[in-house]
Amino acid sequence: MESTAAVDGRALYSKITWRLIPYIFLLYIVAYLDRVNVGFAAYDLQRDLHFSNTVYGTGAGIFFLGSVLFDLPSNLMLTRVGARMWIARIMISWGVISTCMMFMHSKESFYVLRFLLGVSEAGFFPGMIIYLTYWFPTQERARAVAKFMTATSLAGVVGGPLSSYLLKLDGVGGLAGWQWLFVSEGVPTVLLGISVLFVLKDGPANAGWLRPEERTWLEGELQRDKELSGASTHHRLLDAFRLPALWVLAGVYFVSQVGVYIVNLWMPLILQSFSHGGDRDAILIARYATFPYLAAAAMTVVVGWSSDKRKERRWHIAGCLTLSAVGFAWAAWAHALVVALCAMTLAAIGLWSMMGPFWTLATSMLSGTAAAGAVAILQMVGGVGGFAGPYMTGRLRDATQSFTGGLYLISAMALGAAGLALVARNRQTPIVNTTAQ
């Protein structure tokens, strides 16, 4: 056995972080762009294809129904065939579907392609969360997850300017701007999916860039972490369903995803409602919409660091959700573009910053197949929220000609979820350490 006495744990985690996080960060930025770029194209789609708010909200949200149906089997398949092969398969298939979005011509084709996009992307996010547990024990995980999760907010930072540029190509080559948007953001996904086969490793045991003593030390740390947290006693898929704390967290995650996708898929149109309309305003709004994502990216890292330093998860989650509730309520009250932008920034900061401590708390409870199942269950419940948020907002917008009702509703839901987060037992309570018989 290799001696591990000389291994510097802090230096090793830094090495792993720099080796893995930038690459999977890039993968998730591309994934998130393909998922939410329809929000930047919303104005043009409503203009060119005559979509109502209900049609747009349904199509934007139906992605999550496809994801919900296939998240669990996809995540279980990842544990069988390995992260490298399965993540590559996911990315290549969703890149093809995303590119095909350029051919939609009716609400039916919009619904079908968005549903298929959800099916093809199912398992990617929960798979990446599980993948991080292969490399980082609980005490290091909130920071790692937070750095990874900043991709979702920075996708908005990148997506705004990129989308505004692509929308300007309207008419070039006989294609509408929104068609250029989908093809230009779909093709790179296929290429990155191919690169996964050569870059990712299935775990420390397969990482040639780790020294033998580093692999031995890391595997020992990960095993000790499972034993301390009680995760080592929960291996089977059924264990995940039997854990009450998981269902409490599922309620929290449902609400968070309602809010996240109201921001992602409706914020451009919410901000547009304060402008004078027109193509130029739509392009400017796409640029303004980058600010909430940039602020959220910075605060996600700060909250993840704070959560790890204090070894506390629940109050961090509750505090972030309370901040998002204030932001949504402020946006409902707003009567000017600048005020609405500031309010949506608060909402975005709260929703994105909770993800580091949330996923650390969730993944500290289980291991093995149960962990894969738990993350997939949470993602499935979140997927229902991802559908409910855009759909609910579109229906209320058509019924009331205002975003106010939907924004007040999600504000109240976020406050309720903050209270629910405090109920979730932490990883050292008996509810987590009890093995289901």
TrEMBL record:
The chain crosses the membrane at residues 20-43, 55-74, 86-105, 111-136, 148-167, 179-200, 245-263, 283-303, 371-393, 405-424. Gene3D superfamilies: MFS general substrate transporter like domains. Residues 20-429 form the Major facilitator superfamily (MFS) profile domain. GO terms for cellular component: membrane. It holds the Pfam family MFS_1. Keywords: Membrane, Transmembrane, Transmembrane helix, Transport. It is a multi-pass membrane protein. It is found in: Membrane. PANTHER family: PERMEASE-RELATED, TRANSPORTER, PUTATIVE (AFU_ORTHOLOGUE AFUA_6G08340)-RELATED. This is ACS family tartrate transporter-like MFS transporter. It comes from Tunturiibacter lichenicola. The lineage of its organism: Bacteria, Pseudomonadati, Acidobacteriota, Terriglobia, Terriglobales.
